[in-house]
Amino acid sequence: AVAAEEPITPPVEVKHTQLLINGKFVDSASGKTFPTLDPRTGEVIAHVAEGEAEDINRAVIAARKAFDEGPWPKMSPYKRSMILYRFADLIEKHNDEIAALETWDNGKPYQQAVSVEIPMLARLIRYYAGKPSLPQKKETPYGVAGQIIPWNFPLLMFAWKVGPALACGNTIVLKTAEQTPLSALYVARLALEAGLPPGVLNVVSGFGPTAGASLATHMDVDKLAFTGSTDTGKIVLELAARSNLKPVTLELGGKSPFIVCEDADVDKAVEMAHFALFFNQGQCCCAGSRTFVHEKVYDEFLEKSKARALRRVVGDPFKKGVEQGPQIDEEQFNKIMHYIRSGLDSGATLEAGGDRFGTKGYYIQPTVFSDVKDDMLIAKDEIFGPVQSILKFKDLDEVVRRANATRYGLAAGIFTNNLDTANTLTRALRQGTIWINCFDVFDAAIPFGGFKMSGQGREKGIHSLRNYLQVKAVVTPLKNP
Ligand code: ADP
Fold it and tell me: Ligand 1 in contact with 53 (CB < 6 A)?
């Protein structure tokens, strides 16, 4: 593994640390700031303006004015499209800088950010740029959309929220996660440069219980969208209900099964299951965090999964060839280490990893547990880290029952070449996304969201337009000639 000791200087400068309200970068009303940290070292990258209730209120007033007085919701669909296309072009132009900022603040491998995530951001904006001119009959924007996003994919979550809301003519107050405030500010400035009128997209950095809760309870926010943990999702839904009953879209946690069937090509299944869990340092709401393996291939699968985890390249995410960077922060680091201890205490067998990696920052060794039982905490809770749990199964009925025995229902992976097996599992699994012989395939056009406590509603695709449009019935008597 690559040493994590000497962090590379990121090839980008931090340009924006203030709040973006009404088209201008401004300090918070209180003048307060908070540090955003480099997960490679725990050192401060920058001090960022800390938005609180008063700042959320200022942003909502700006968004309200931009909605009520226009021009955004009244603009011709063609003109709105053109601004969004220019926005996507500018993202593409600054691709490498944006990727560097994302890696610096989040810790994800730069190669992945630069070649997959930021291009995907531009694609998502472009996909929604094409939507304003869909015939919408009597569907009309909600007004001011409040959006609260997490830290694991700061810009993809930005795009899933901002793209459809803007395309439908809403105005926005977006609250970024306190761990990763930098990239959304940079990108929002590009939206202004593309011609987005002031007040249409406001970005407030700050913490959940202050800035986030103020947005969820604000009486002049017409619609709320949230991505984050299930526990926080419940709070946000309650705040929305208690204030003005604003409708809420929720994308929450998961404990997704990845099912390796007896006919599977073991080498391919090992690689896919490894990717399904370890991608993005294991910090994915849809991570394949329960690897169910048929007993016939279990031993071979286990040996190879262990070897793969030991080969995983951990280190400075700016270094070429690094597959896994640090976890986002100390809190997540401690939470994951707690789950690793819990796995050991509950009698699971540690096959690989199990400890921190290096001496600095929030790196964790790729960890694999075998002999995992359904009632162990590591098989039930969302760990959100590089910890793979491998479970054995005998037949399809059994694996369906066990895979569904969870409060979550976000995603599932199926690995088989047998069409009947794939069909049986696809019908029986209670999950919002089923990936067959693949995993984490995201496209702007494919809807995403959860069953059960993994959320409410769907994002991406044309499904997300429904989150930002409401039906208006217009009736008038016809004049008979
Ligand atoms: P995580 O545990 O992964 O940090 P959270 O669900 O707590 O996930 O955070 C996701 C987003 O929700 C972040 O932007 C965070 O600031 C925000 N948030 C946290 N607590 C609250 C709250 N009480 N009200 C509104 N937003 C919140």
Answer: no
Q: What is the spatial distance between Cα 318 and Cα 325, in angstroms, rounded to a whole number?
A: 9
Contact 418, 321 (CB under 8 A): no
Closest CA to 425 of 450, 398, 445: 398
Confidence of residue 135 (pLDDT cuts 50, 70, 90): low
Q: Is 248 in the pocket of ligand 1 (CB under 6 A)?
A: no
- Rounded distance between C-alpha atoms, residue 4 and residue 315, angstroms: 5
Please write the tens of the pLDDT for every residue from 4-20: 567 899 999 999 999 99
Q: Which residues does the annotation mark as catalytic?
A: 251
Q: Is 45 in the pocket of ligand 1 (CB under 6 A)?
A: no
What pLDDT is recorded for position 217?
Answer: 98
232 lines ligand 1 (CB under 6 A): yes
* Model confidence at 136: pLDDT above 80: no
pLDDT at 6: 79
User: Ligand 1: which of 55, 56, 148, 454 to mutate, judged by most atoms within 8 Å of the beta carbon?
Assistant: 148
Burial class (CB in 10 A: 0-12, 13-18, 19+), 335: middle
CA of 150 to the centre of ligand 1 (A): 7
Amino acid at 235: I
Among residues 305, 385, 371, the alpha carbon closest in space to that of 339 is found at 385
387-393/367-370 β-pairing: parallel
| Neighbour tally for 480: CB within 10 Å | 4
All residues at 6 or more sequence positions from 62 whose CB lies less than 8 Å from its CB, including other chains: 21, 22, 198, 199, 202
Residue 284 in contact with ligand 1 by CB distance below 6 A: no
Identify which of 37, 160, 232, 235 to mutate to test ligand 1's pocket (most ligand atoms within 8 A of the CB).
232
Q: Which ranges in 69-178 belong to alpha helices (H)?
A: 77-93, 95-106, 110-112, 118-129, 154-167
Distance from Cα 369 to the centre of ligand 1, integer Å = 29
pLDDT digits (tens, 9 = 90+) for 376-415: 999 999 999 999 999 999 999 999 999 999 999 999 999 9
CA of 180 to the centre of ligand 1 (A): 12
List the one residue out of 67, 81, 70 whose CA is nearest residue 131. 81
Say what the pTM is. 0.97
pLDDT digit string (tens) for 94-106? 999 999 999 999 9
